[in-house]
Amino acid sequence: MTITNPYILAAIGTGFTFLMTALGAATIFLIRKEMKKGMQSAFLGFAAGVMIAASVWSLLIPSMEQAKELGIPEWLPAGGGFVLGGLFLLALDKALPHLHPGSDEPEGPKSSLKRTTMLVFAVTLHNIPEGMAVGLSFALSTSAGASTTLAAAVALAIGIGLQNFPEGAAISLPLYKEGCSRAKAFLYGALSGIVEPIAGIATVAIVGGATIAMPWLLSFAAGAMIYVVVEELIPEANLDAHSHAGTYGVMIGFLIMMIMDVALG
């Protein structure tokens, strides 16, 4: 039986990415020592590379193709949504107190929240645009004459899931270091990814039957993802000035995501 309900498909796609975050967080039960800086840089770079490639092939190009089909200037929703997505993440970055793994200084407004809570908030910010992207891709694949196929949506979910695995570990390990038990570190690390199904399904609900909103939301998700990449992932991946691990990670992540998207799209 073929599933054509966009909500069910979005739930399946984002449920997979959430599961990968949880599996990554579960490595806290296997790893006894802190993750090496080189490996952490490589994982962060890999996530950045996947998100850059996904923003172009899975979001911006389909956004322009959708706009063309609707008779709208292709640059308008692609550029406008991209800017709005970046501004949205900037607003969240300023409004939500959060602490990035490896950092001693919290960002956002002053807060009495625990460091562990702010660590979870930091990763949650990353996951909002990822959930939107996967949910929208699966929803778009169900429309007639869609520019995004189901195979391309699956490729995007796999790519995001692959980079979510080390991301789950990158949050659970610092939480354990901050004094959480292994069980709590796993729970918080896993729950940091629950926002992806929420964001994905909510975005599909917002689109509903309003086809004209689709190109704007696709580019919105792209802008939000690129904001995360430039503001956080790439700088954090290059904290060690004498290592190229972050750069290698970006190149490998971009290459894998690009090949999957082009081959399956």
Automatic annotation (TrEMBL):
Keywords on record: Cell membrane, Membrane, Transmembrane, Transmembrane helix, Zinc
Entries under Pfam families matching the protein: Zip
Molecular-function GO terms, alphabetical: zinc ion transmembrane transporter activity
Protein name, UniProt field: ZIP family metal transporter
InterPro entries: ZIP
Ranges annotated as spanning the membrane: 6-31, 43-63, 75-96, 146-165, 185-207, 213-234, 246-264
Family: Belongs to the ZIP transporter (TC 2.A.5) family.
Superkingdom of this protein's organism: Bacteria
Mode of membrane association: Multi-pass membrane protein
Top-level taxonomy: Bacteria, Bacillati, Bacillota, Clostridia, Eubacteriales
Compartment(s): Cell membrane
